[in-house]
Amino acid sequence: MLKRVTVPGLFPPPTYSHASVVEAGTRVAFLAGSVPLDAQGRIVGVGDPVLQTAQVIVNLGEQLRAVGSDFAHVLATDVYVVSGEPEVLSAVWEVVESSGLSVGPHSSTLIGVACLGYPGQLVEITATAAVPETDSETETKTGTDSTADTEPAGRPGIQ
Questions:
Q1: CB atoms within 10 A of CB 121
Q2: Among 2, 11, 26, 43, which residue has the fewest nearby CB atoms (within 10 Å)?
Q3: DSSP 131
Q4: 86: helix, strand or coil
């Protein structure tokens, strides 16, 4: 079970929650930073943090699907932007917000940094997400399915 908390005694955040709580027993995925590279490893949107953010969101969606999750189950993100300008940070956040990623709302930190790992990279997003049970997993827990998937986490798409 996922609970998103906005603390009444704190300034209300515009589009995110102060905390996300996951009930014990829920699988959680910790995703590596999603970067603005295309499938060939080229930077998308050179010099443009807004275009790079759009590619980062696409790549983050792929990471989430690979572990059986989606934007609605994202618990927390850290959004790194190579800029010290509030206008640039705001422009990046607008892309994040319009993507559906912040639909939760989830807990998030927007951070201006000096540089990131790839030459020309301006944006990176790390995420933590709950991985919802599939129907077959629910059936297994209730005893209605005798073919439980007990394969370890080395399955395709899960490292």
A1: 20
A2: 11
A3: E
A4: helix
Cross-strand pairs, 31: 127
Query: What's phi and psi for 32, nearest 5 deg?
Result: -65, 160
Secondary structure of residue 123 in the 3-state scheme: strand
What's the confidence (pLDDT) of residue 21? Answer: 77
Q: Quick one: pLDDT at residue 106?
A: 82
Res 14: pLDDT: 75
Say how far apart CA 62 and CA 71 lie, in whole Å.
Answer: 10
pLDDT category of residue 15 using cuts at 50, 70 and 90: confident
Q: Calculate mean pLDDT across residues 26-46.
A: 93
107: Cα within 13 Å, side-chain hemisphere: 16
Is residue 49 within 8 Å of 81, Cβ to Cβ? yes
145-154 burial, b for 16+ CB within 10 Å, e for fewer?
eeeeeeeeee
How far, rounded to the nearest angstrom, does the alpha carbon of residue 144 sit from its chain's CA centroid?
Answer: 33
- Cα(158)–Cα(87) distance, rounded to whole angstroms? 37
